[in-house]
């Protein structure tokens, strides 16, 4: 039986079990707490950019837009059901509907795990959990939990992976006033995009979070095998050119199943109830298929009752290109440069925004971002017209975002 | 004169800090075997960082519905305001870190739950704590 079928059966069984318990709870006048939890989160978000020859896009998350304003980068709906089996174990299933990198909006299972408490402070989860590479990776789509419209793309664009099919351990310990969370994990995940997919395999990592009062420090490291199988036209054209110019060996750096990657991150948070400071540095290293890069952001917000204005500065920098080829000057060299540029998301940005918690469990956010992709980069933008004639690198873009986040 | 007295009383009421609410108590059922708890232990439970005592006994949690008593409880215990707590629990729940406290519809329903679940703890204004519950901790 495939993993997918196993997950489907697991979901069906959980939903059936939840329904059964619900019926029982109704007939019992709720004299006991319910054994299941049903909850959800959602975002309706619109994005537009002042330059009408590009789309704002989150590479690996959504497909570059087809309407302006574009609702695809941020809009989503997540539903979650959990059932307490005994007081030491439970099952959780979460389904998320949002556009993916291949422009499909089919609901996907984003959590499906069984949790067992092994000892005081120690639990194990097996099934589908979230990739926890960076400080906010596992709540990347739970926009209500984050201060901004979306976590800064300069850092979170470094890891578009969401799912981790595998196993993890979470251990909590309190030492005096210091809370320690140790979170090792192992597994793999997949991202689809048009005519291809990216996979993480045999991925293992460790996160440590230290919290004390208003302060929190996150340290993370993960590494694994990485595959990128491309069948899109841009790749096929480039492969033909490389073969024709006797550089067939380079193709193995553009697409294949022999990659390796690692992620490192350090993040800090300080929140005294009035001021909120969040900062993070993250680095992705790869040996082929995608660039090695690092990014950081620093965000400062101030609460005035339900309103929190904030400012963010962010930067992603290219460390190493993933392939080298020597093509004859002219059109072929131009095509090669375009190929590399389209895979580079280095940019700098400054954002001013505000969050308004206008009701319990609902927040309205608006953001203005001025971003400048590096000369050899598309940053977080995608050309609407001909990629060969649309210059993105070195230009400045003003992007406006408006979103409504709910949690229920 | 009466008008002045009324106005003075209203002004005094408005100037009184809203945090001066009733004491909150953390409670279990009267027959519960759970021991007296420290504020640090209860904070760990209600931030989703722990759900067992040091001897391995599992503790389950109940919440009151959204309102002043709940906000006061979290403020006193965790020093986090309502929006910080909602963001914190959204992150904990939707990342699958922890199951949230089970929300009782009222203090009366919470008392019923506590009577039937020996390992369940909840909280309520001190004035609501009657002979059916046992106080494990007082805040502040």
From TrEMBL, chain A:
<dbReference type="InterPro" id="IPR023614">
    <property type="entry name" value="Porin_dom_sf"/>
</dbReference>
<feature type="signal peptide">
    <location>
        <begin position="1"/>
        <end position="25"/>
    </location>
</feature>
<protein>
    <recommendedName>
        <fullName>Porin</fullName>
    </recommendedName>
</protein>
<keyword id="KW-0732">Signal</keyword>
From TrEMBL, chain B:
<feature type="signal peptide">
    <location>
        <begin position="1"/>
        <end position="22"/>
    </location>
</feature>
<protein>
    <recommendedName>
        <fullName>Phosphate ABC transporter substrate-binding protein</fullName>
    </recommendedName>
</protein>
<keyword id="KW-0732">Signal</keyword>
